[in-house]
Amino acid sequence: MRPDSEAELAEMVRTAQEPLWIMGGGTRRLGQMAQGHILETGGMSGIVLHEPGALTLVARAGTPLALIEAELAQAGQRLAFEPSKMARLQGRSGETTIGGIVAANASGPGRIQGGACRDSLIGVRFVDGQGYVIKSGGRVMKNVTGYDLVKLMAGSHGTLGVLTEVSFKLLPKSEASATLRLDGLADAEAIAALSRALGSPFEVNGAAHLPGVGTFLRLEGFAKSVAYRSAQLRMLLGGDVMTDGAEALWADIRDVAPFWEQAGDVWRISTKPSEAATLGARLGAEAVFYDWGGGLIWARMAPGTDVRARMGSVVGYATLIRASAGFEGTFGHFAPEPAPVAALSAGLRAKFDPKSVLNPGLMG
Fold this sequence. Notes:
The protein is α+β, with helices and mostly antiparallel strands and 364 residues long.
């Protein structure tokens, strides 16, 4: 099923008698379709509005991210949250779409300064589980009508509605960038260094540690400011400024490139940076690396490993991003919610999707 318009989509959802599995480019789809139909949003594509002077973009949900990035690059602008591209990690060939990014609230290394995808999202249009078209938010930040509903759709993974249009606030592209590299640090030492940098006044907007490779800090802004801040950060922590390869490095961290074509399950774990090194060691992973100053752990595990059981008393939230063949149904992709939160989530799904046709069972 591939609707070409919002009206056609609404009719498909309204008349659906079997589950609908929502798919944009198919690059980050979680879960398995036991029955029903795949509903592709790629037919609803295109940039609706780009106002460079107002730092605003409106696009249909099926628009490829590459098209949006090319449009913004011509105007010297960017999406602040640095959206990730999961095709290679998942072993798929589709194109990442902007609707899929919003549905997953996908946010890269820049999240620590620019916020998550939902923080840049200022408006949405979507079709709920009854086939109603709903609009929330607007095209400027001061328009806060339905603002909470806009945030709710980011990260809902298609369980509350099928996105048809999304609106973003933008940022100018930085004039300069510098990446500081520290070598030879153990995980705990590296995360302590990242925390020290993030707590400094030097406006770090990338902070990652790749065991055995290095510990990396990124600064962006005006050229003179970047030069000054990177020099100050070197005085504080040591290390050297990378002279080449920095852009590719951050793209690899964003897209989880260290685990491409590597066997095993891939888990994404959010935790406190202060507990990240302890948790990283406790997992018994085949490989790990840390982003967001230690607040995000990517772990490659032996197939069928229950990461949540290994976390113990460490506070964190583990999401199964890629399951090995034969182990797809072993664990839920999303961790079970505490009873009060689960009741709220179920109430929302009952309101937005009373027929339970949109990605049923994916999030509980």
